[in-house]
Design brief:
The model has no long low-confidence stretch (mean pLDDT 96). The protein is 39% helix and 22% strand. It has a six-stranded mixed β-sheet. The longest helix has 25 residues. It is α+β, with helices and mostly antiparallel strands and 371 residues long. Bound molecules: alpha-D-galactopyranose. Alpha-D-galactopyranose binds next to helix 4.
């Protein structure tokens, strides 16, 4: 891409554990992936942002003074949203040409939209002559997701996409945004990501409904407990105040408080290189997301259970928002090929179509290089 000034990439992510708790102030453990969105960008001296894609025939030219007109464009809305928020945050927005190459599979639960938003914002920054500030970009990207994509998401995906570090998981406290980088030492085991190929769409799914249920749980529990977020509630406190909550809301809250405990144990297991314990926590997380939080569905349940049934697999769970998308599994490295074949074959038998395995590494978040 010789004619561009900069190549800006931002990662997709896999969340190892800590699911559906970022918006409850919990700690999560995502990793940025080598599946990335790349934006090639050059300043064009006009008031227009020209967008083109490597994988789409569409071309869109947006006037930077009339960005709201692109609010409902299927693909341009992310860029219009990010551009508008970038400007409102007090930065200079310059006319530019952007060529977008998204290698994070759409609807996979690996945060394709976060990687698009983060790479777009980082591209606006470099064109304005700034060094991208990853935390500010993550927060603006989350706002774009709320206001332009209609998903009332937490901060995990955008933070991981912007701030990831190669070879490390992030232990991100979603209440304070404190982040500790934990080296991913899986020893004899490999992390395997498999797509159920059941596309998930968080706008149409019950994602926002789950978030409302946890907000209701917090409201009801805080009449008796001195807490500011659901992640502060201990499992024994939830049990003691169970009668305050309608049964479904109780189930959602139970998932949240127990998942927070699992993240704590998973951090210890990772630091002790105790992968067997880590794997058990993955299985327990999946069961809770299936039975208590009800965000899996038959495809993700089949994929996780088939993975768990393979002798070389010590843990498997859905990752991301759920309702479709991917699983993450820990598998003995020398048996990964056999494991993949087993899962793809059995999944097709049960569900009727193919699952897809990805080969991916743990990457840095935003990376800017001169073309
Ligand atoms: C989606 C959201 C995240 C997080 C996960 C579930 O990926 O964007 O903020 O809530 O679901 O953990």
């Amino acid at each position: 891409m010789n004619n561009y000034q900069y190549k800006v990439t931002a990662s997709g992510r896999v969340n190892l554990i800590g699911e559906h708790i970022d918006y409850c102030g919990g700690k999560v453990m995502p990793c940025a992936l080598s599946l990335v969105t790349t934006v090639y960008v050059r300043e064009n001296g006009s008031q227009i942002i020209n967008l083109s894609w490597t994988t789409l025939p569409d071309k869109v030219s947006m006037d930077i003074n009339r960005l709201e007109e692109y609010k409902s464009h299927k693909y341009a809305k992310y860029f219009a949203g990010c551009a508008s928020l970038w400007k409102s945050a007090g930065h200079q927005l310059k006319g530019c040409d952007m060529l977008i190459d998204c290698k994070v599979p759409f609807g996979s639960g690996l945060s394709s939209s976060a990687s698009i938003e983060v790479s777009a914002l980082a591209a606006f920054a470099v064109i304005a002559g700034e060094t991208p500030n990853p935390v500010e970009i993550a927060l603006l990207a989350q706002k774009a997701e709320h206001e332009y994509a209609g998903v009332n998401c937490g901060i995990m995906d955008q933070y991981a996409s912007a701030c990831g570090r190669a070879g490390h998981a992030m232990l991100l406290d979603c209440k304070t945004l404190d982040c500790v980088y934990v080296p991913v030492n899986t020893g004899d085991y490999s992390i395997v990501i498999i797509n159920s190929n059941k596309p998930h769409n968080l706008v149409e799914s019950r994602y926002n409904e789950r978030r409302e249920e946890t907000e209701l749980a917090l409201k009801l529990l805080s009449s008796k407990l001195n807490v500011t977020c659901l992640a502060e509630v201990k499992p024994c406190e939830l049990e003691a105040h169970k009668s305050l909550l309608p049964p479904t809301v109780y189930k959602r809250a139970k998932h949240v408080v127990e998942e927070c405990e699992r993240v704590h144990l998973a951090e210890i297991a990772m630091r002790n290189k105790d992968m067997v314990q880590f794997g058990k926590l993955l299985n327990a997380s999946h069961a809770s997301l299936s039975e208590l939080y009800e965000v899996t569905g038959k495809e993700l349940d089949a994929l996780a259970h088939i993975a768990q049934s393979h002798p070389a697999c010590i843990g498997s769970r859905m990752t991301g928002g759920g309702f479709g998308g991917c699983t993450v599994s820990l598998v003995k490295t020398d048996a990964v090929d056999d494991f993949k074949q087993h899962v793809v074959r059995e999944y097709k038998k049960q569900i009727g179509y193919d699952a897809v395995c990805y080969d991916t590494d743990i990457n840095d978040g935003i990376v800017v290089t001169k073309c």
